[in-house]
């Protein structure tokens, strides 16, 4: 579904992403992990054509993402609050997003009923603008807007970071259901190794812009990642070859 070929991204003379080849197949659930500054968000932004690589290219279903529009019909992403319209209420925003995808208000309402548990009574009918919600609740609105679109490709940047433990568990269940029932391909970044290994069938580990590990998740993956991150980046770089 996604093919990355020979991309580099440079900021202020420093290469922050350098990926010779990466393929994400339809229906895969990808967990993207890596320490702060590893390049995860930059990779997301390039896949979404929000920024362009210095060289190389990214294809989505065989079409170059840069300068094309078709992939936007089947791709939903929430990277940060910048994806929301903060002067709207959650309902207004979700009706707006539903409308862009040809859904009537009643269809959106019907869908939102399925998210009542995920919203935990904090999102709808509160008379609040999105800008006045907590960061965690803004994140819930962003994720809900993605799910509403019934995307073939879902991309979430650190969705577990600001939400409470109950919502984290509900989100994991939603992601698993989405993949099982709709075959959704997902790319989710996280610093929570437990959650991300639980919801992903493949883990991509980045460090300093480079893919260090690309492994199918199995019963020993969590331990393997914990062992990897237990050794600091500086210690790793100083270790003899
Ligand atoms: N707009 C920008 N201008 C300059 N440098 C940038 C910019 N965006 C990202 N970078 C740099 O690129 C590198 C990768 O950043 P990125 O945000 O992709 O990492 P990340 O893996 O998502 O990190 P985190 O886990 O902290 O969110 C960092 O060194 C960051 O400072």
TrEMBL record:
InterPro entries, A to Z: AAA+_ATPase, ABC_transporter-like_ATP-bd, ABC_Transporter_VariousFunc, P-loop_NTPase
Pfam families for this protein: ABC_tran (PF00005)
Entry keyword set: ATP-binding, Nucleotide-binding, Transport
Protein name from the UniProt record: ABC transporter ATP-binding protein
Superkingdom per UniProt: Bacteria
PROSITE patterns per UniProt: ABC_TRANSPORTER_2
GO MF annotation list: ATP binding; ATP hydrolysis activity
Domain ABC transporter, chain residue ranges per copy: 2-233
């Amino acid at each position: 579904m996604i093919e990355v070929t020979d991309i580099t991204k440079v900021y202020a003379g420093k290469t922050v992403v350098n990926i010779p080849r990466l393929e994400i197949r339809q229906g895969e659930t990808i967990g993207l992990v890596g320490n702060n500054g590893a390049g995860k968000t930059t990779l997301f932004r390039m896949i979404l054509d929000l920024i362009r690589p210095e060289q190389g290219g990214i294809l989505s279903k065989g079409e170059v993402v840069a300068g094309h529009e078709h992939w936007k019909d089947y791709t939903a992403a929430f990277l940060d609050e910048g994806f929301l319209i903060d002067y709207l209420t959650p309902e207004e925003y979700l009706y707006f997003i539903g409308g862009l995808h040809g859904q009537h208000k009643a269809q959106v309402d019907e869908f939102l009923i399925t998210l009542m548990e995920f919203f935990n009574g904090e999102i709808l009918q509160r008379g609040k603008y999105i800008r006045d919600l907590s960061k965690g609740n803004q994140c819930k609105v962003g994720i809900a807007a993605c799910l509403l679109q019934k995307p073939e490709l879902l991309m979430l940047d650190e969705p577990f970071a600001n939400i409470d433990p109950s919502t984290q568990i509900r989100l994991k269940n939603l992601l698993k259901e989405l993949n099982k029932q709709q075959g959704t391909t997902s790319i989710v970044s996280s610093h929570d190794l437990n959650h991300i290994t639980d919801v992903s069938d493949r883990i991509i580990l980045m460090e300093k812009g480079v893919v260090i590990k690309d492994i199918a998740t199995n019963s020993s993956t969590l331990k393997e990642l914990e062992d990897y991150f237990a050794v600091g980046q500086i210690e790793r770089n100083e270790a003899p070859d």
